[in-house]
Amino acid sequence: MFDAKIPAGPLNSKWEDYKGHCKLVNPANKRNLEVIIIGTGLAGASAAASLGELGYKVKAFCFQDSPRRAHSIAAQGGINAAKNYQNDGDSVFRLFYDTVKGGDYRAREANVHRLAEVSGNIIDQCVAQGVPFAREYGGLLSNRSFGGTQVQRTFYAAGQTGQQLLLGAYSALERQVALGNVKMYNRHEMLDIVKIDGKARGIIARDLITGELERHFGHAVLICSGGYGNVFFLSTNAMGSNVTAAWKATKNGAYFANPCFTQIHPTCIPVSGDHQSKLTLMSESLRNDGRIWVPKKQNDTRKASDIPEEERDYYLERRYPAFGNLVPRDVASRAAKERCDAGYGVGTSKQAVYLDFAAAIERYGNIEVGKRQMTNVSKEDIIKLGKEVVAEKYGNLFDMYAKITGENPYELPMRIYPAVHYTMGGLWVDYELGTTVPGLYSLGEANFSDHGANRLGASALMQGLADGYFVIPYTVGNYLADEIRTKAIPTDHPAFVEAENKVKETINKFMTIKGSKSVDFFHKKLGKIMWDKCGMARNEKGLKEAIEEIKALRAEFWKEVRVPGSADEFNPELEKAGRVADFLELGELMCIDALNRRESCGGHFREESQTDEGEAQRDDVNFSYVAAWEYKGDGQYELHKEPLEFVECKPTQRSYK
């Protein structure tokens, strides 16, 4: 049995006990230890900054031209923390409980509790870095609500929280670069892990500008490369987001956990046509004030403004009165799909629902009238004042919607529909964030550990920064304390040569196939299979079909793909080819995992397992485990089960009614 290394003792003292007893590395020895970090989003940048500040020699790699381009900037809505500034009943325990419940009881209690414990420290750290969080009139940091909670614990910086947090982490990272503690490798992509005597000892990276392959040694390797939502082709992820780093780790012995747990975000701009290469997320923070509805009449073609209030179905408020529009993402997504499938969808595609700010604008306008002690105010002036408040809170999001759709969301309701967003699955890690390969760690969205089957909104930023700033400095030190006698291994070691030759062989294969179809042709085909048969709903028949279709598509890919240009130059098509090859393998594993998990939980909805009311129905007797898959060769995987034990959060049927 693989060991999750969860410390003994009560849940609320595990992390303190761990920190008090883990091994330490003295400052002089840290200078001789090298750490490689793959990815410089929130998890990678915060880890690089923290380990650099501790004195380790850090090499950080990103495929973008700057760490500031990392996809973390797209997380607009906010970051959770149990500060209880509102005095509305929040606590470390309540954040922990909401996260475990929101994840449909498929997360590891110990990891989630640690996340809740350090959440407050994250806010203090970011404020110290100058992150411009929104503040109340009196100067205290402001909070708003997010899905799956009944308290206000989400800290935010207008509608660009991820960007501001990343700039904070980036500034801390660049300080360490200037001091010489961190060496940045921009426009580099990791293409393989190098293992020596069973331990991760380095990587093979490709310089994306020159095409040159490089060997890099490290006493430990940290994978902080984000999620794999782009396996669906259309997702809210940046087009460059991929699974390659995590997948290379998997093919080198790291288990991949819960790959079928994909988050579908309910608040995205609907697909407009075949020309699209990605989808745009409208932040969940909009559900804080926006009301979601569809017409009560099927196939209603009237404009939203022509549909009177009594003919509107505010279906989330109707079905889930306790949480209303702030139910968790999986619940809101399935509810939108159900309404559209039943013929109540809006817009030309009928695959959309309305997100309406009219009531919020009027409410805020009336509040402003009261604050300013105005009298005899016209409805138009109330609306004008309300729009100003909404613009202050969400202005950049409204501007983005207007630019993309050509519609004014202050005047017309937004049209939204669910889309692939975040992936809860990822590399299996123990309590120390270590994979099943010694010396190989995984942080942030690239690991599986904290969100179960469904991530609550505003928790991704929290996990990335918790792992980088507050967890990995202790846990990687516990491992490196035993490595102080290991000298830097020269990169002419046979293991480096072998790994580089393997990468060269793959690249050469891409360049010599000279087929007739583009990389995007295969990526789009894969995405359609995944969305149709392993998307918002899955069933046994569809998943079995998908597995066979993906196998056939992969065989066709290796015969028919065409990669233009050459390998020893800047070649984006070659980059894409490698990533899509990995997606074709991962997609099959996702379907295998979804087929194996014969229950519905969180973002994984098996049609065979639902309540009479169409809600997800878990099977705790048979599936209360983490599914960790070991790569055994092309299309071959062995399932390892990590049983999940719930001491503080006893599993119950989730209800938001």
UniProtKB/TrEMBL annotation:
SUPFAM superfamilies: FAD/NAD(P)-binding domain, Succinate dehydrogenase/fumarate reductase flavoprotein C-terminal domain, Succinate dehydrogenase/fumarate reductase flavoprotein, catalytic domain
Known cofactor(s): FAD
Top-rank taxon: Bacteria
Span of domain FAD-dependent oxidoreductase 2 FAD-binding: 35-461
Keyword Transmembrane helix found: no
Domain Fumarate reductase/succinate dehydrogenase flavoprotein-like C-terminal: 523-656
UniProt keyword annotations, A-Z: Flavoprotein, Oxidoreductase
Pfam families, alphabetized: FAD_binding_2, Succ_DH_flav_C
Keyword Chloroplast: no
Protein name: Fumarate reductase/succinate dehydrogenase flavoprotein subunit
Lineage of producing organism: Bacteria, Pseudomonadati, Bacteroidota, Chitinophagia, Chitinophagales
